[in-house]
Amino acid sequence: MLDAPKKPLVRVENLKMHFPIFRGVLKRQVGAVKAVDGISFDVFEGETLGLVGESGCGKSTVGRCVLRLYEVTGGSITIDGTDIATLSGADLRAKRPEMQMIFQDPQASLNPRMTVGSIISEPLDEHEHMTRDEKRAKVGELMDAVGLARRFADRYPHEFSGGQRQRIGIARALALNPKFIVCDEPIAALDVSIQAQVVNLLEDLQEKFGLTYLFISHDLSMVRHLATRVAVMYLGRLVELGDAETLYMAPRHPYTQALLSAVPNPDPAQAGHIERIILEGDVPSPANPPPGCTFSTRCPRAQAVCKQDSPAWREIGEGHFAACHFIE
After folding, report:
1. Are 236 and 36 in contact (CB under 8 A)?
2. Where are the beta strands (DSSP E) in 116-210?
3. Which helix (H) or strand (E) holds 271?
């Protein structure tokens, strides 16, 4: 695992992504789904920042916003010194090679009518001026890097297993030598036996090419193994962020504590000593989030102030941040 240098490659400040809700014959806007509601974080050069939380909390939306696959509602997204939140047209297109994405479902993200070689070389067709032989050589190098035999270049995605298809997606993401890759639950659709292989591949590629990852997942045990730092998200907001080991050993926010109490412990001797925290109630709708702290409706420690005032995002230890009224 790489130690995070002090220079942030990616800086996200007060990011908001609100999806409008239209109703009626005239399709008037009557509200908005606050999928991401004012979050800030850095991703340092060469590190892996894990982003975790329940389904529907806005993790994947954050990843797509950071790569400007959505027109963001507000905030800034600075990648390698350039605020891409305000870019459009040719300027945004010129920035695309530096930032890529590995999608969750390798079957849905690969064109079934294109050969593997065509899929991997498509970014080169769009952004580079290379001869056919140069592209063929580059595709061969990328297939070598992800552990696929070069002779598979003329086959189609349906001829491969899920793990092999995800390797094709990883090779495509590497084609333009990006600095930053968003991994949107890249192992969620794979068999457990294949997940570790893909994670090990991502680690090897990070070391070989000096990559920086935003790793989005709901698999907390895998994130602990892979991430340098971990950010915990709930209902469109970050509730805690810190060094992976610190956060897993001593979580401070009640939601993080509840989340980690559900992670199975492989050591039977320790498993019985973990107090399971069961959260009551359902996650509120992001179209109508509760006032004050968004977690107040389910938090076992909630007081009156939690239902009125939103807690400030503050540093509670060295590099350890949280948003809670009752963390000393």
Report:
1. yes
2. 180-184
3. helix 268-271
The predicted pLDDT at position 1 comes to 47
Half-sphere exposure of 294 (CA within 13 A, CB side): 23
Q: What is the 3-state secondary structure (H, E, C) of 188-210?
A: CCCCHHHHHHHHHHHHHHHHHHC
SS3 of 137, please?
helix
Say which residue the tokens 């079934």 belong to.
112
Using alpha carbons, list the distances in angstroms from residue 172 to 89, 112, 169, 205: 22, 15, 5, 13
What confidence tens digit (pLDDT) does each residue in 5-46 have? 468 999 999 999 999 999 988 889 999 999 999 999 999 999
C-alpha dihedral over 5, 83, 89, 21, to 10 degrees?
A: 110
Q: Which helix (H) or strand (E) segment is 28 a member of?
A: strand 28-44
Chain position carrying tokens 């805690």:
240
Buried b vs exposed e over 154-186: b needs ≥16 C-beta within 10 Å? ebbbeebebbbbbbbbbbbbbbbebbbbbbbbb
Q: C-alpha angle with apex 184: 221 to 322, nearest 5 degrees?
A: 60
What is the maximal distance between C-alpha atoms in the chain? 68
- Secondary structure class of 212 (helix, strand, coil): strand
In the block, which residue shows the tokens 């094709």? 168
- pLDDT tens, residue by residue, 101-144: 999 888 899 999 999 999 999 999 989 888 999 999 999 999 99
The one-letter amino acid at 152: F
Q: What phi and psi, each to the nearest 5 degrees, are found at residue 243?
A: -55, 140
Cα–Cα distance between 24 and 36 in angstroms, integer? 26
